[in-house]
Amino acid sequence: MVRWRSGTVLAVRRSWQGALELDVEVDGAPLRALAYPALVGDPGVGDRVLLNVGALVMGLGTGGYALVVALPDRLPADPPADGSTRDSGHLVKARYTPLQPILLGVDEEASPHRAIMEAAGSLDGMPVVTADLHSALPAILAGVHADRPQARVAYVMTDGGALPAWFSRTLDGLRGHLAGTVTTGQSFGGDLEASTVHTGLLAARHVLRADVTIVAQGPGNLGTGTPWGFSGVALGEAINAVAALGGHAVGSLRISDADGRDRHRGISHHSVTAYGRVALTRADLIVPDGLDPHLAEVVAATLEPLASRHTVIHVPVDGLDAALRESPVPLSTMGRKLDQDHAYFLAAAAAGRHAASLLP
């Protein structure tokens, strides 16, 4: 349940799109906190803040933050009621939680994109790359742009990880490199809001005019270490959505020889379950050339049972290392940088390269 604290803002530290990092004094000791001004207002030095410190106290993956729940002595004003902001819609996300935002859905009647979305029914063969982790996003993007630098790439964010897109410093750093972000399901804070992955994909194609779309959860990952108990099963469901809408599904495999957990070495059991059990339609599963021979052997053996369900494609990696090193944002997965888990990022970039090769 919620572990509450009350504190006083000592300093406003760095900020990025949608988020403020704070130093807050709680019981005489400083701690790091994160505020989303669109939800709680703009905290300043001296403000009293109410905090949720549960994940911080338990050492869970919140980036080491307490989360600001409210500025009780200085509440923000209501948004304008004239329909002039993205808060003027009726799409409720993080539903029936104390901080549920009410947003303008891309396909609502009040949306400027309503007519486009009413007419949209197909992805027109658009390549859609699916990935388990948010950390794959910049690597896939690097792979697309390595061969097709002018391609418009959109990101459809699912709700398996962080719900606010604002938590992601990666998304902040990719502004100008992505055609835009569509937040779907219970996630929110993207350039466009959609209720489902299906409408999110259609919005990426027809509103953001994407040539390629990447589908992955937000930062973080829910997992219990059991075969089915992880949020990444949603990527298999995304494959099904792509097929239903007439897109071309490209599966980015979670490959690693650096992860300390056996279930994630070689091809992660997350990829094996999502593509092998959840996805009911065919996808291109991408294997990068140039893997360490032992790792390549393990990957090939793991993929063998999936070959009847999907198309396994080996992709050359010439130039992809350079593209990854030129990423506009730092590459990191589970605390490991590019050189510490090179195979992981190379596999994601290869999926992006394959998606680029499908463009006319």
Task: Please outline the major beta sheet.
Answer: 8 strands, parallel
Cα(first) to Cα(last) distance is 51 Å
Assembly type of the chains comes to: single chain
Q: Helix and strand succession?
A: EEEHEHEEEHEHEHEEHEHEEEHEHEHEEH
**Alpha-carbon Rg, integer:** 21 Å
Question: What is the average of the pLDDT values?
Answer: 93
Describe what you observe in this structure.
With 360 residues, the chain is of the alpha/beta class. It contains eleven helices and 19 strands. The chain has two domains: 4-70, Beta Barrel (OB fold (Dihydrolipoamide Acetyltransferase, E2P)); 114-357, Rossmann fold, CATH 3.40.50. It is 26% helix and 24% strand. A hairpin with a 2-residue loop joins strand 1 and strand 2 (19-26).
Fold topology:
Layout (H helix, E strand, L loop, with lengths): L3 E13 L2 E8 L2 E7 L1 H4 L7 E5 L1 H5 L7 E5 L20 E2 L9 E2 L10 H6 L7 E4 L6 H11 L5 E6 L10 H5 L6 E4 L8 E2 L3 H10 L5 E6 L16 H11 L3 E5 L2 E2 L9 E2 L1 H10 L5 E5 L4 H11 L7 E5 L4 H6 L6 E2 L2 E2 L4 H16 L3
Helix pairs in contact: 4-11, 7-8
Fill in the keyword field for this structure.
360 residues, OB fold (Dihydrolipoamide Acetyltransferase, E2P), Rossmann fold, five-stranded mixed barrel, 11 helices, 24% strand
Q: How do you describe this structure in short?
A:
Helices cover about 25% and strands about 25% of the residues. The protein is of the alpha/beta class and about 350 residues long. Strands 11-10-9-12-8-13-16-17 form an eight-stranded parallel beta sheet, sandwiched between helices. The protein has a five-stranded mixed beta barrel with strand order 1-2-3-5-4. The protein has a two-stranded antiparallel sheet with strand order 6-7.
